[in-house]
Amino acid sequence: MIELKNVTIEKNDKTILNNVSLEIEKGKNTIIMGPSGAGKSSILKVILGLWMPDEGNVLFEGRDICQMNDNELLELRKNIGMVFQGNALFDSLTVADNILYFLPDKRKYSEAELKKKIDELLSFVNLSGAENLYPEELSGGMKKRVAIARALAFNPKVILFDEPTTGLDPINTASVLELIDKLKVKGSTSVIVTHIIDDAMEIGDKFIVINRGEVADSGNLQKILNSSNSFVNQFFLKRKQLLSERISFGA
Ligand SMILES: Nc1ncnc2c1ncn2[C@@H]1O[C@H](COP(=O)(O)OP(=O)(O)OP(=O)(O)O)[C@@H](O)[C@H]1O
Ligand SMILES: [Mg+2]
């Protein structure tokens, strides 16, 4: 569905992504993981068409986004929902207005249609009745779920999550992970950037490990856990030890 082919990004003489090739498959949860500063958020910027590659190509459903004009890029972005690292809710707007903020062509909808949309989205993220609250009245987990509702408002084909569970307690983490899985059941495609290995393993179908702007390895969990790449091995070492202990205890 989305393909990066040999993408290189340079900013201020620094190589941020180096020859990155990867594929996001339709209907799957793809995890992008790696340490801080590895280039994970940068990959999302490339998928959104915010950063154009200095070298390489980006294909969305087979179309090269590097060849698109501004109007075509705006159309492309209507297919992609984004849940930003740190929510990025507007403090001065209610939950309802935050959710509608990025909805294109708002005037197309009647008041009743917009209200129905908000009710449906809030129900999906288990926040029914929160439409008139302001962000300061919400917990971290609730804010995250509003940010997810906002990303879903225009029925995107793909949803990009940047660190969706960072800073959340276990209960809120579980509810965000549940939402991501619920989206998959609905047929959505999600790309989830995270450095939290447990959360990644819980919802991931495919894993792409990034280190210093390069793809260290990619594949399903088994392939990643058995990777011959030394960085990937190190990254998962602790988890592997715990997993093998659990398996040997028959858990
Ligand atoms: N606009 C920019 N100009 C120059 N360098 C940048 C810019 N944005 C990011 N970088 C650098 O690119 C590298 C990758 O950044 P990126 O935000 O993609 O990392 P990340 O993997 O998302 O890290 P984190 O887990 O901390 O969010 C970092 O070294 C960062 O300092
Ligand atoms: Mg980041």
Keywords:
251 residues, alpha/beta, 2 domains, 6-stranded mixed sheet, 4-stranded antiparallel sheet, globular, binds adenosine-5'-triphosphate, binds magnesium ion, ABC_transporter-like_ATP-bd, ATP binding, transport
What does this structure look like?
The protein has 251 residues and is α/β, with parallel strands linked by helices. The strands form 2 sheets. Strands 6-7-8-3-9-10 form a 6-stranded mixed beta sheet, sandwiched between helices. β7, α6 and β8 form a beta-alpha-beta unit. It is globular. It has 9 helices and 10 strands. It has 2 domains: 170 residues, P-loop containing nucleotide triphosphate hydrolases (Rossmann fold); 65 residues, no CATH class. Adenosine-5'-triphosphate binds next to β2 and α1.
